[in-house]
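USER:
Working in pairs, take the chain set out below, taking as long as you need, and write a paragraph about the fold.
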Amino acid sequence: MGLIQFMSSTIGRGARMLAGVVLIAIGVTLGGAWWTLAVVGLVPLVAGAMNVCLLAPAFGQPLKGH
């Protein structure tokens, strides 16, 4: 539960966005089938930008971050 609370916080939001940017950068840099990783990286980037934690409802927490 601590991880979900962290990911819903402001710092967790930044961590999700950073992880998304890193995944996108790796996918774009390596190219080819790695573009899939770049597409997957859009999920945490957009979730962080919209201030939602997609895993939180599975643990009984609100979707919207703090």
Remarks:
- The longest helix spans residues 10-30.
- Helices lie at 2-8, 10-30, 35-49.
